[in-house]
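Sample entry (187 residues):
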Amino acid sequence: MALTLFNSKSGRKEPFSPLAKDRVKMYVCGPTVYNYVHIGNGLCAVVFDTLFRVLGKNYSNVTYVRNITDMDDRINEACRTSGEDASTLTARYTEAYSQDVAELGCLRPTSEPKATDYIGQMIRLIERLLKSKNAYLKNDHVLFHVPSCRDYGQLSNRSVEDLLAGARVELADYKKHPSDFVLWKPS
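Predicted structure, serialized as tokens:
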């Protein structure tokens, strides 16, 4: 059975073809676990669960990775409010998320890595971005400098100017460009 998906880069529906014969890998940004989930988290889980199932019917080897963001300013604030440590708080909300999406009938992903398990790799990648001048340090923040990446926005087929048009982007005093985003915060 042929699978057709919308390609945001080309702007058209196109037949899906995996990069490797009969092997598909999909990565989905999962929840930030500082509180109970909302309907948007559930919608995302259902949509990508559906894609995972469809891919599984067409290909014998499908890997579905959905991360858990367990470090964030909202987590820090929830810990201050509750008096709990981050690992206890995030474990509780990760379990609640898992139960909620199971109630929606979603399968578990192949892998569900936590951000805190990859801090060393994040730091090494950020160091490479700093060295290549794609990132910079300002006011104890490390920011990705969007204009340094000529192809930024190509997957959505939008230019940096298009991405900013109509957006209410507050230019923090430590940003070189309004589209720059934080890779590492002092918190």
